[in-house]
Design goal:
Rossmann fold, 4-stranded parallel β-sheet, 13 strands, globular, binds pyridoxal-5'-phosphate, binds zinc ion
Length: 471
């Protein structure tokens, strides 16, 4: 693919994350890492030469022009804050029309005062998860440079999203890598239905991730995995919409599940930039929640004390830990398949986000995740298991006293309930065998908030009796 040379007339460019390197690349160059030091890349802007609005409130004007696709999109109505592509190149399918909902039911469960807990419900995206926020940005970049094929490895939602953008726009062919047996039917069905070329590898997510990188560079296919810096630009807008939902006030906490750490990294970048641009005067604290069975970030950050350290990250400590995991054959394992990842590709960027937002990391069990998920469901905004890690994490931090009951907390619900109905049905089932088969091996013992189906014979009197008895 074409390699463009960066000129200083460009207001957007790519820059190495490591400050001591700081190499820059043209915005039109397709790279997954820095050519000098191998570090991750950021999309960076010369803000002084860009028309940045003087207040966030000015974005509200776009609501009155919702018949224009760029104003309707919850990502692109913030175009001025991710100006890496000209408006006429933007590919949008109406992503990011999501909402911030207060939930007193979940507030009570978490232990917060009424009115203080908000759910940012990203399940409302066209493909049913927050991934569309990033996909529209990466896809736009791919389109800008003339790509004809785009690939990703995925625990399911990235592939569903990529397949959808390819299917709707017909601009590219989607090539999707999945591990065997680790993808929910809801997500797999989307990739197949939208017409993506789906390659199932005999291995897990981390294996599929390695292979897709090799194959993409060999065949010159555009890679849309989380290492793609443009995806994170789109995901910044989740936080812009959170601020908008709070009438542009900054919450005290943002709590998000951590898988490949793209979301947490993009949130950190969003707040860092808004601060630099003078559009906010403080940042929220960030809490990233791992599953116990996929807890690399928790281990490295909380247990081993690794830090961003001004960009001087101790990479040996990370590779050392990965070698330990390999030796002990420690494979990621959690019911929350979307965060079942042991080698998070955005680890370094997430350390920066934790630094910017004075963040913390916690790990929660599958039991805690499923109980929290049932509470979210009962509140009316159903989510998939990984999403509920945010609510379970908020509850844990509240119990520890790290979050105060009077603080304002936003939990990001990353994906829709119907993405993974197997876990939901098993949790609520009366069938002990089914419960054990799906959840028992994950260490889930009980379903504290199960809403069991009532079994009755096909007999009118008995059915009426059963309803009166149970209501
Ligand atoms: C991808 C995904 C995650 C993990 O997000 P990262 O940005 O990779 O940390 C969490 N929940 C859902 C539903 C996802 O699809
Ligand atoms: Zn570098």
């Amino acid at each position: 693919m074409a390699t463009a040379v960066r000129t200083d007339t460009d207001v957007a460019f790519q820059r190495c994350l490591t400050p001591s390197c700081g190499s820059t690349y043209d915005v039109g160059e397709v790279r997954t890492c820095c050519g000098q030091c191998g570090g991750l890349l950021d999309v960076a802007y010369d803000w002084d030469r860009l028309p940045v609005p003087d207040s966030l409130r000015s974005f509200e004007d776009k609501w009155s022009r919702r018949n224009e696709p760029l104003c309707r999109s919850g990502v692109w109505r913030f175009h001025e804050l991710l100006p890496f592509a000209p408006p006429e190149k933007v590919v949008t399918i109406g992503e990011g029309q999501t909402m911030l909902s207060p939930s007193d039911g979940v507030a009570r469960y978490v232990g917060l005062q009424p009115g203080q807990l908000f759910l940012e419900y990203e399940g409302l995206n066209p493909s049913g998860s927050f991934k569309d926020n990033g996909m529209t940005a990466a896809f736009t970049h791919a389109h800008t440079i003339g790509a004809r094929r785009a690939a990703c490895a995925s625990t399911g939602n990235t592939s569903a999203s990529l397949a959808l953008y390819c299917g709707v726009s017909k601009l590219m062919q989607a090539v999707i890598f999945i591990g065997s047996g680790k993808i929910s039917y809801g997500k797999l069905s989307q990739a197949l239905d939208y017409g993506a070329l789906t390659v199932q590898i005999a291995g897990d997510f981390d294996d599929a991730m390695q292979r897709v990188q090799q194959v993409s560079s060999q065949l010159g296919i555009y890679l849309v995995n989380s290492v793609n810096p443009f995806r994170l630009e789109g995901q910044k807008t989740i936080m812009y919409r959170v601020l908008e939902g709070l009438d542009w006030e900054v919450p005290d906490w943002v709590v998000v599940p951590g898988g490949n750490l793209g979301n947490s990294s993009s949130f950190g970048k969003a707040f860092l930039e808004l601060l630099e641009l003078g559009l906010i005067d403080r940042v929220p604290r960030l809490a990233v929640i791992n599953a116990v069975g996929a807890n690399t970030l928790h281990e490295l950050f909380e247990v081993r004390g690794q830090r961003w350290n001004g960009g001087q990250v101790d990479h040996q400590a990370t590779t050392g830990y990965y070698a330990e995991m390999d030796e002990s054959n420690n494979r990621a394992s959690t019911i929350a398949s979307a965060i079942e990842i042991n080698r998070p590709v955005n680890y370094q960027k997430c350390l920066r986000a934790l630094d910017v937002c004075h963040g913390v990391v916690r790990e929660v069990t599958d039991q805690q995740i499923l109980d929290a998920k049932a509470q979210v469901g009962a509140s009316g905004l159903g989510c998939e298991p990984a999403s509920a890690a945010s609510v379970a994490g908020a509850k844990l931090l509240r119990a520890e006293g790290v979050i105060d009951p009077s603080e304002r907390v936003v939990c990001v619900l990353t994906g829709h309930q119907l993405k993974d109905p197997t876990a939901t049905v098993a949790y609520h089932t009366t069938d002990q065998q089914e419960f054990n088969r799906v959840l028992g091996s994950r260490g889930v013992q009980r379903a504290a908030f199960a809403n069991r189906a009532v079994a009755v014979p096909n007999d009118l009197d008995k059915i009426v009796q059963a309803i009166q008895l149970n209501s």
